[in-house]
Amino acid sequence: MSKERYPENLAVSRKDFLESGWEHALQQVPHEGYPSMWQAFSAAALSAIEQGRNEHGKVLWLLADACSMMLSPSSQNQPFKPYAVFSDHRSAIPDDLSQTDITFFSEIVDAVNDSWLKARLADLVWLKGKPRNTTFALIAIDAYKSLPLDKDTWRHGGRDCWPRAINLAKNLRTEATDRLEQMEALIVAAFSSVTRGDGFLGLCLAKLLRSNKLGCKHLTNVAEKLEAFAREFDDEGDLRVAREYFSAAVDWYKATADETKAVEMNVAVAEGWAKEADARSVSDSPSHIVAASFYEKAIQTYRLIPNAYRALHQVNERINELRSHLNDSGEKSLGEMVTVRTDSVDVTKEIENARKLVTGKSVEEALLAFVNLYPGVNAEDLRRSTLMRMDQHPLSTLFPTTKMSRDGRVIAKRPAMSLDGAAEENDEIAICAEMVHDYAFSINIVVQCQIYPALEVLLLEHRLCEADFVNLARQSPILPKDRAGLFGKALFAGYELDFVTALHLLIPQIEHLVRVYLKQAGAKTTTLDRDGIENENGMSTLMGLPEAEKVFGRNIAFELKSLFCDAFGPNLRNELAHGLLDEDGCKSTFAIYAWWMTLRFTFNTWWNVTRKSNASEDSIV
């Protein structure tokens, strides 16, 4: 890039920056975030080069490149992406900057009085500097949070800058606790000051707080203001904005544990869809296709209302009315075409130990420590401890247990334990169910006390890309070679904390992995129906085969079954396959553990073959 715009190996200094006219360049265009700054610096750079001011031209080109990058605040490892990508070239990304460029940015940050530019330069120095210097992360946070929380600033880039500042503060943990508290206070204050004239700004600020688990001391106030705005917009006939505010109020009322108000808000959301459908049906230019889709959304929203509240809001009657409208619009469209709390336990020491195990190491050694934080379950030990617990607390096993899904369906039943030991089959079912229950409990602890705290340190100290994980998957002997790309993408998504994507990619591939190894062991993995059609069996059936323990070993077989396809456990495979897993479920401790376990198998098999060559004889890992 530099060869096309200024002489190669041209050195620039802080003096060149101060004399480059960068402030004058910014004054020539309306300040509308980074795109306008990119254009201003690019134009000034071209002019400087044409005038023979090469040093100033390079300074301005570097600033232009820095401002051209698109901020992706949710990404831990690649927070800056190119603004444009073409078949043969793209705009700048951080990796295009040399260490000399990064050093130059570090030398001029303190001389920048523009918050947007200061934040961008400091953020790039933090991201690319070697070794990393938290001073620049703090400078970036301070600059980002100085941006006004108003409608225009939000629209021109504040919606990305503020989340990035929060993300940085969370990554720095104790070093930026005061900054995080300051940002929380600023956002809460801004939310308190918004008016209906600010449109979606209040909604955006509420989402910023909620998505980052901030504003916990103001739950009721936020919920009530969102509801007030929603009702005002609804009265004015601005149904779309009203519906968005009602939807946000649902989440905030749930956070206050006010289920009654949360249901009331959901009813308002459903009625908002119905009102829009009615409006589409009777307008001067009716669109029954659109109306039908809105009626359908109204019905779907009403179905979210728990049974206990349906009579109060006449939900079943309303659904029947909406179904009638839906059928009518469908025909006309053809012509158009209880929480239980226990005493808290201090796990600070366990968390700190997990962090120390991965701190200050090379990327390979850190990953090795990370994937071996927990050795996995020992099925025999788990059975013994479960039986001991059942003996110590026999009352809980004397009665059958029913497990229900989030929408009230009975999905599993555990029989009672017999007193005389006669019903051995039922006893074994009960023991297995309790083992899975205890396993799920232990996973929660492992993830929250070890895996996630250590992952935070990895993200702080090591910047890995998708290609790194794809390469790891390709070299790991446990994974089918034709699926390495998918496994690599899934592992990277988890490293990015995008466990929704990671889980959707991983689960089908894990099932395929199980099927491949069982087939290699001679197991029959298909079923022939009466019509002569041979169908592949699902993971639940596969893990029930006698060959499963022989191939994977008892411990891994138990984990695969308990985690992915046992109704008494997380049941991730079946929940995902049937569309029953919501976004929160995809971000649960079980989802995180599933990602970590896959990384553990992948990394350890690679490490064993390439470094240690000490894989056990009775297991594939």
Overview features:
621 residues, mainly alpha, two-stranded antiparallel ribbon, two-stranded antiparallel sheet, 29 helices
Brief digest:
The protein is mainly α and 621 residues long. It is built from 29 helices and six strands.
Low-confidence regions: 614-621
Overall pLDDT confidence:
89
Strand order of the largest sheet: 1-2
Rg (C-alpha, Å): 29 Å
Shape: globular
SS-based structural class?
A: mainly alpha
Structural features, described:
This protein has 621 residues and is mostly helical. It is 65% helix and 3% strand. The chain contains 29 helices and six strands. The strands form three sheets. Strands 1-2 form a two-stranded antiparallel ribbon. Strands 3-4 form a two-stranded antiparallel ribbon. Helix 11 (201-211) packs parallel to helix 13 (239-255) and helix 23 (484-495) runs antiparallel to helix 24. The longest helix has 38 residues, at 424-461. Mean pLDDT is 89; it is low at 614-621.
Helices and strands, with pairings:
Layout lengths: L1 H4 L8 H5 L3 H6 L6 H17 L3 H15 L1 E2 L8 E2 L17 H10 L6 H14 L5 H12 L5 H22 L4 H17 L7 H11 L7 H17 L3 H17 L3 H24 L5 H15 L4 H4 L4 H19 L14 H11 L4 H9 L7 H14 L8 E4 L5 E5 L9 H38 L4 H10 L8 H12 L3 H22 L5 E3 L5 E3 L2 H5 L3 H18 L7 H6 L5 H4 L2 H24 L9
Antiparallel strand pairs: 1-2, 3-4, 5-6
Helix pairs in contact: 4-5, 6-7, 7-8, 8-9, 9-10, 10-11, 11-13, 12-13, 13-14, 14-15, 15-17, 18-21, 19-21, 19-29, 20-21, 21-29, 22-23, 23-24, 24-26, 24-29
